[in-house]
Every structure is written in C-alpha cells, then in structure tokens.
Amino acid sequence: MEISLAPELEAAVRVVGEPYEGVYLVGGTVRDILLGRPNFDVDIAVEGDGIEFAHVLAAELGGSCLPHGQFGTAVVLYGEGQHVDVVTARRERYASPGALPTVEPATIKEDLFRRDFTINAMAVWLKADDRGRLVDPFDGRTDLEAAAIRVLHDQSFIDDPTRIFRAVRYENRYGFCIDEHTEALARACIEAGHVGDLSGARVRDELTLLLEEADAARSIERLGELGLDKAIHPRLAADEDAATLFARLRELDAGYELDVPSWRLGLAALARHLAPDEASDWLARLKLRRRDAQHVASAIAVGPHLVEQLRGDPSPAEIVSVAEPDYPDAPLFALGLADLAPLHAYFGSLRDVRLDIDGSDLAELGLEESPRVGEVLAELRRRKLNGELDGRESELAAARELMEQ
Known about the structure:
By secondary structure, the protein is α+β, with helices and mostly antiparallel strands. It is built from 21 helices and eleven strands. The strands form three sheets. A seven-stranded mixed β-sheet has the order 3-4-5-2-1-8-9. A two-stranded antiparallel ribbon has the order 6-7. The termini are far apart.
C-alpha cells in the first residue's frame, strides 16, 4: 500500500525502529487512503504503551504530548496546529448501552474489532520491513469496494448507539449504503429505546457532525427513515420538508454571508414543530451554549411570527424593528419558510444601515446622558431607514429638531 510519508509518519517510522514493533496507521486514515480521498487526520495504534510511544514521537517531532491515561490515548502536538492521535491498542467493555467503555490493552486485531464498521477496522503496518502492509481481519477493503457500511458484530449499536448517526454520515459522505443486516440492527436498537440512553451532550455532538457535512439534507431524511428523529425527541421531524428547509437555509446563509453554523440551522429545521417550552427544554438537554440555544429557540418560536408580520408592504423601519431583535437566526428562518421581499431587503441592505452620528454628537449639541439619548438615536435611525435623512448634516439637523421638542 502506498503511504505518503508526511513528517509525522516519517517520525513515527523512525520511532518504530526503537523498541516498538506493533505500530499501525489505523481507522479513518486508512479508509480514506484506500478511497483516494484527502485525510488530514493521522491516527496511530500501538501494541503496548501508546502513551510512552506518544512521548517519544513528540520528542522526535519537537512537539508536546497530552496524555489521557484513562483510555491509554494521547495527542501529539507539533508545528503550527498539527497533531497526531495515538492510542494503545485496546479492547472495550460496555457496562450498559450508551455508556462510555472500560478499556484494557489488547492486540491490534482486538483493537480493530472494537471499532464501529468494517471500513474503519483496517490498519497499516508502520514497521520498516512491513511498512505499507494492510491488516484487514474483517474484510473492510471488500466492503469499501462494495460501498457497504457493515458493523463487526450484532451488539455494536447496543454498545454505542452513536454509531447509527455515524453510519448515516458515511452513507451521505461517501455515497455508500448501510447493508441490510446492519440496518436491521440499527432499527432494533432504536426501537428498543437505546438511543435514549445517550447523554444529551453525545447526541448534540453527533447531530453537529452530521449537520456540518457538505450535503447533509439527505442525511436528515435518513434520520427520519430510520426513526432516529423520534428516538431523540418525539416531536422532531426529520422529513423531506426539514431537508428542503435546511438546504434553503444553508443557501440563504451563504448568499448573505451570515456565517450561521449549519448545525444551528439544522437543529431549527428538525425542531420546527416544537412548542417554545419544549424547544427550550430539549436544547437545554443537549447542553448547548446559552447563546446558541437562544438563537435556535428564537428561530423556532419567532421565525414563523415574522413571516406573518412582514407580509404586505411594511416600511424599511418596520422591517428592521421586527427582524433585528432576533438577528440572525429568526429572520433567516422566516425567510427559509417564506420568500418575502421585505426579508431579502433586510439582509440585502437594511441591516447595515447605521447613523453617521452617535451619542457623543448629541452630547456636543447639549443633550445630557439619559434615556432620551437612545430615544433620539432610535428615531433618527428610523427616519434614515425610511429615506428621510441623508448624511451627517441632515442627521444633526434632525437631532436638533428632536431635542427642541
């Protein structure tokens, strides 16, 4: 197998020449090499003490090592933000569905057996004499060629239900299909309620990864086909309408250069039928940052009302007054629901309208600091939005007039 020896792999090969024999490139890195796809992650498994190996590799690379003793893993940091993930080859045991595993050292075959799918259960020797030799005990290469996503054992999804989300991601990313038996196992896991055993934070992480994929609309429908949406929350709707809305929200976000995270748009599309209290409770269980939760909740609760408020022919100032308080998610969600000219005007130009004067100018005109300052500035902006003011001098003149009233 041809492996491009980036600096971190060159260093790893040199370190393997020391007392380490069983050192392998593993997982998604191998999968993507076989697929001829770029992969910027380097994952190394070590039969033996992975943390010790990571320390030696860090010294070789002139970097640092961050060990995680509980799982026998480490991250080697070097260069400008580059990193290598190192794991001790291990077997895992799950005390209950959805729980984090307990681990103990093992052989590379046992380590590969603990992984999610056969296409991720391959390794490549890094030992000099055998460098490039593929280790494929579960026929992952055959499944790659067949574009099939297959679990390694029937307990896989019960051990870790997040693997169902991953299977959906891989279907979408690579154009693969979950094989028949694997899909039956996924459905059985969902129907048994094991997805509910996952913490909110783990569900959040999986949804975030799925919704940030380049073309995630199809993945949304797949969540619904498998019944995964209802397993997450009974009123989530991962259907064709959600996929269409999500795709439109992404398109609008890119067109108006808003930089709203795709996962936030996706959560709003999935949760669009939730009542405000339901949405707030669910978002809290996901352990979202408060600001992100507020944005998603406002999209769901406020967005549909903005559609009704902005039908007809509102003035520019009226558009801004209703759209601005919950910018950007709620007005964007409203525009995703209905192609309204007022909202296009808001995102196209009105949101950027600012006064040429500020409170310091009003102070120079003799208006002392008080709530009146905000009132005057708000009225001036209203007039500017409606085309009644043009430039600094006209704003100052209007300010004097307002101060005399």
